[in-house]
Design a protein that fits this description.
Elements (H helix, E strand, L loop, with lengths): L1 E2 L4 E2 L5 E5 L4 E6 L4 E6 L3 H4 L10 E6 L5 E5 L4 E5 L6 E5 L7 E6 L4 E6 L4 E6 L4 E6 L7 E6 L5 E5 L2 E8 L4 E6 L7 E7 L6 E6 L4 E5 L4
Antiparallel strand pairs: 1-2, 2-3, 3-4, 4-5, 6-7, 7-8, 8-9, 10-11, 11-12, 12-13, 14-15, 15-16, 16-17, 18-19, 19-20
Length: about 220
């Protein structure tokens, strides 16, 4: 299970993507070149007569069973597209108007989500269908993306803060790291788990830099 944030690769090697304008999802089989088309939201939202709240696909991930998961940043939902049946299920986030943005998935098929509007880190257990949230204790923080490491911590950054954040979900403890250059505008993040301690990597959009955070413990 891998994702660039723009495409998601399922365990069978098939590649998922989505089109925010048509509200559709696509799955490519690289072996055959075949592309399958799926609705990105439940049928009532896909109807041409739909006049309800706004919905917008944003981050995507594929789970161990080959299903696609999307964040609905405007509707504040997590959306599942069943890879076998095409059935679409929508799960409202625990907090309303949370604005889920980017996410990563761990080895237990739990999604780790940046709730950008809600200023929270969230996890969604895709098997149990349950959310849990942790408010980041920094005003206007707005987590953009969240990535777990091998020690059970999760990391995030923010477009509006130059603080990198590490959360221990077991205790709820936050640890903050100030980037050396201000005005970073953090978006995409990742963790290198190959060494003794996880290493956090982050892109500084407004500074044309890549930063590395190496925790000492």
């Amino acid at each position: 299970m891998t994702s660039t944030g723009f495409v998601a690769i399922a365990p069978d090697g098939k590649v998922w993507d989505r089109d925010v304008f048509s509200k559709k999802a696509f799955r490519l089989d690289p072996a055959t070149g075949k592309i399958e088309l799926f609705d990105g939201f439940p049928p009532h939202i896909m109807s041409p007569d739909y006049r309800g709240p706004r919905h917008l696909q944003y981050g995507i991930q594929a789970d161990s069973k080959g299903n696609l998961w999307e964040t609905d940043i405007e509707g504040s939902n997590i959306v599942k597209i069943d890879g076998s049946t095409g059935k679409v299920t929508m799960y409202p986030t625990q907090s309303p108007d949370s604005g889920p943005r980017r996410m990563h998935i761990d080895s237990q098929d739990r999604l780790w989500i940046g709730e950008y509007y809600g200023k929270k880190i969230a996890t969604f257990d895709t098997s149990a269908g349950q959310f849990q949230e942790w408010p980041v204790p920094i005003p206007w923080y707005g987590p953009y993306d969240v990535v777990p490491d091998k020690r059970g911590n999760v990391w995030t950054g923010s477009m509006s803060s130059d603080l990198i954040t590490r959360l221990d979900p077991k205790t709820g403890k936050f640890t903050f790291y100030l980037l050396p250059t201000l005005g970073a505008n953090v978006r995409r993040v990742d963790v290198d788990n190959s060494g003794p301690l996880p290493v956090f990597w982050v892109g500084e959009n407004h500074q044309a830099k890549i930063a590395k955070v190496e925790p000492l413990e």
